[in-house]
Design brief:
By secondary structure, the protein is mostly helical. It has one domain: ABC transporter involved in vitamin B12 uptake, BtuC (Orthogonal Bundle). It has eleven helices and four strands, in the order ααααβββααααβααα. It has a two-stranded antiparallel sheet with strand order 1-4. β2 and β3 form a beta hairpin. The radius of gyration is 20 Å and the shape is globular.
Length: 304
């Protein structure tokens, strides 16, 4: 029981990180119906910028952990927001009226470009750092095994729930959210009714990139290491989480992220860690066979 409880805590933490990345995928898809395959690399860049931010804090002598985290978070979100805006402006907007595969190919090209750009700028070796939140709390002990939850894990859970609630409220109850939902239903009609479609889509990319920065910083602080390739695998799994939960649904993206985290951690804990990715995709296939729209997704209605 103690071992199971510890793995559950670890799984919820990993799932929260996947969920934050998946929300960025599902927000973009919900409006323009396309997958931003460069989103995983934006997450990776967020991790590197966070590392640089913590190094700046150390150089400036900032000893307060909350101040350092807020400073680094704002810095990472600002930089990745610029990357998100640039990706939309360069890779998506010129191809919006083209056939559906064109933006997809363009986004994959941007993904490869960002990977190699970071590899050249930061080197191919993993970079360590970010372990500034220490300590935790022992929940209980059983069979000589302590079940602990760290303050960092609690922080990740709180931040994830807060961001999930905040973005759900933003989409449901703000003018920007109404514009996003209008663009999702019919871009041409939304434009005729006065919605600035280009600005709305750009802001959606910016918000998704900012969320990826939060996930990148949490990943750095939790695992203590980043490299130029982490965005590829994390991006694929976050995309899988978005599809599993129902692409286009924010709660579905978070649910999918948590499920991916649970499957990965428990499969590695009780079976073979070498096949944890296989287990994730097998579950995805089974869910899509019986529920093609995902767990919380809604079937698309074709307009005729």
């Amino acid at each position: 029981m103690a071992y199971f409880s510890q793995q559950l805590i670890n799984a919820l933490t990993l799932g929260s990180i996947y969920g934050l990345i998946a929300i960025g995928y599902t927000m973009v898809y919900g409006i323009i119906g396309m997958i931003n395959f460069a989103h995983g690399e934006v997450f990776m860049i967020g991790g590197f910028i966070s590392l640089i931010g913590f190094m700046i804090c150390a150089a400036l002598g900032i000893s307060s952990v909350p101040v350092a985290i807020v400073f680094v978070l704002l810095m990472a979100m600002a930089f990745t927001a610029v990357y998100g805006w640039t990706i939309e402006r360069v890779a998506y907007r010129p191809l919006r009226g083209s056939f559906r595969l064109a933006p997809l190919i363009s986004a994959i090209g941007v993904s490869i470009l960002l990977q190699n750009y970071v590899q050249l700028a930061q080197g191919a070796r993993p970079k360590a750092g970010g372990n500034i939140v220490q300590g935790g709390y022992t929940l209980f002990s059983a069979d000589g095994f302590d079940v602990r939850v760290t303050w960092l894990q609690i922080t990740i859970w709180v931040v994830t729930v807060a961001l999930m609630a905040g973005f759900s409220w933003l989409i449901a109850a703000t003018p920007l959210g109404r514009q996003q939902r209008a663009c999702e239903q019919d871009m041409k009609m939304a434009a005729l009714l006065g919605v600035n479609v280009d600005r709305t889509i750009s802001l959606t990319f910016v918000m998704g990139a900012a969320l990826a920065a939060v996930a990148g910083m949490m990943f750095l602080m939790y695992y203590g290491v980043v490299d130029f390739f982490i965005g590829f695998l994390a991006g694929i799994k976050a995309f899988t989480a978005a599809v599993l939960g129902g692409i286009g649904s924010l709660p579905g993206a978070m649910l999918g992220g948590l499920l991916i985290g649970l499957i990965e951690v428990f499969w590695a804990a009780y079976f073979s860690s070498e096949y944890k990715d296989v287990a994730v995709f097998v579950i995805l296939v089974l869910v899509l066979i019986f529920r093609p729209s995902g767990l919380l997704g809604k079937p698309e209605i074709e307009k005729v």
